[in-house]
Amino acid sequence: MTSRHSRSSPATARLVEENLLTLAQLRGMVAALTPERYREAFGEHGRHTLGKHVRHIIDHYDALLDGLDRGAEVIDYEQRQRDEALEQWPQQAARHLAAVEARLSLLGSGPSPDALTLAYPLDDERLSLASSLNRELAFLTSHSIHHMAIIALLAEQSGIHLPESFGVHPSTLRHWQRASEEQAPLSRRSA
């Protein structure tokens, strides 16, 4: 099957930028952790660690980027690598995140596939859902932020202090910025 490609759109470049900002924030947090903190177990069954959530985020980016590198028109997030070293060693995860960022940055400037198909398991069958690179980039931002919000809760329980913006979706950050700008003129008038 021949893959059709077109020049990357301004929307693609903006979505890539959102992902890059999200991953840079995650990489900064991961790079500052000791392996003990990164592996610390949380929850009744001890299944949650910061590292497992980071590895899960990385796996999803790798699934998309590896699929695109192979020229695949089908993206399957269920076929993840699940490299346990990425959930055990924060410095290795930070290096991998930097590599993902480098690969992602190329998407904003080069050709991109016109259409993708998302493989989605449903009970005993796999659905093939129409998708696009932009839709998958939007998904990856939201998916990453969702897991980063969980990471922030776990980090707080462990006494790790993160910026208020960590694990907050870019749309919420933009809303906070607009609200702050709207409040500034009011405070100047009352002064």
Automatic annotation (TrEMBL):
InterPro entries per record: DinB, DinB/YfiT-like
Domain of life: Bacteria
Pfam family, one: DinB
Record bears the keyword Metal-binding: yes
Annotated Gene3D superfamilies: dinb family like domain
Keyword Metal-binding: yes
Signal sequence region: none
Entry keywords, A to Z: Metal-binding
PANTHER family xrefs: DINB-LIKE DOMAIN-CONTAINING PROTEIN (PTHR39473:SF1), PTHR39473
Family per similarity comment: Belongs to the DinB family.
UniProt protein name: DinB family protein
Lineage, top ranks: Bacteria, Pseudomonadati, Pseudomonadota, Gammaproteobacteria, Oceanospirillales
